[in-house]
Amino acid sequence: MENTLKANQIPERDLQYYRQRLKNKVHSDIAGLFNDEAERRGLTKKDIADRLSKDPAQVTRWLTTPTNLTLDTLSDLFLAMDADLETRAVPFDHIAPSNVMHPLIAKITGAGKSAPKVQQTGSGGGKVSIRYRPQVAAG
Which residue among 41, 63, 77, 103 is the one 20 to 30 A from 32 at the CA level? Predict the structure, then answer.
């Protein structure tokens, strides 16, 4: 029985990957919303800090790098920006495979000649859409 349980366990590498991936997605939503609202209505990090009774340096840390924010902190940040986060869980087999490859990955793998062009977005960064799917043990 123990071998059966271990065969179905998710490897630590996959757990770590998906944890960081989710942090990156949520951070991208928060930072993108902040940038849009800053441009649209002049919202500042100080405005958010004042609304949340927080130190502006704390708000800067939250908006600068993907971290393990609590759900309460996420809710507070979105509320301070007069927004809400919509969520949706999607099974892997319902996600269409990506046809976009980051330029550096294309260069490393030699697929650059046949890879589709990467669209530039927002702050000059390339659109990144690379999917990693864990290996499923045959059962």
Answer: 103
pLDDT tens-digit series, residues 7-34: 789 999 999 999 999 999 999 999 999 9
> CA 43 → CA 18, 37, 58, 120, 135, distances in Å?
31, 6, 16, 25, 44
11 neighbors 134 (Cβ within 8 angstroms) = yes
Q: What is the pLDDT of residues 42-86, one digit of tens each?
A: 999 999 999 999 999 999 999 999 989 999 999 999 999 999 988
Superfamily classification of domain 8-90 = lambda repressor-like DNA-binding domains (1.10.260.40)
